[in-house]
From TrEMBL:
It comes from the Bacteria. The keyword Transcription applies. The keyword Transcription applies. Residues 5-102 form the NusG-like N-terminal domain. The lineage of its organism: Bacteria, Pseudomonadati, Bacteroidota, Chitinophagia, Chitinophagales. Keywords: Transcription, Transcription antitermination, Transcription regulation. GO terms for biological process: DNA-templated transcription elongation; transcription antitermination. This is UpxY family transcription antiterminator. InterPro entries: NGN-like_dom, NGN_dom_sf, NusG-like. SMART domains: NGN.
Amino acid sequence: MTGKNVYWYVVYTRPRWEKKVARLLDEKGVEAYCPLNKVYRQWSDRRKLVQEPLFKGYVFVHLEDEHKWDVKKIDGILNFVYWNGKPAVVRDEEIETIKKFLSEFSDVEVEDLKLAVQTPVRIKRGILMNYQGIVVEVMGNKAKVKIESMGVQLSAIFEKKNLEPA
């Protein structure tokens, strides 16, 4: 699609309909991306390499902004994923990163980093790298972390992607 306002959106699908929705979108001429993860599954009589959706219940759709509502008519699509009250837009670079990562690795796991108050965390980057602290407050994609060190208590706000469970 070569429009001026073409974006990647994320749609929710019926459970276990990700590949089917991607195929239905393709049949309608809509560019869709359902990232597939190569995983080994064990049955009683054999072990097989299968392709499963990396993001359960989601498919990425590349659409012109003015046509985005048309895809909700496709069987299996429940709704858009929303961010700040609008359908979430995913940057082209993020889609390319997912494609590159999946071409290089198999058996990929997606972990949703759930940070709750009182969770011990370690800081991954920056001047406080490797310091450990406790989550005091969670605000969207940021968390306030209490760090006790050298007899003082610091509180700082970090992006969740800069924190990992300690």
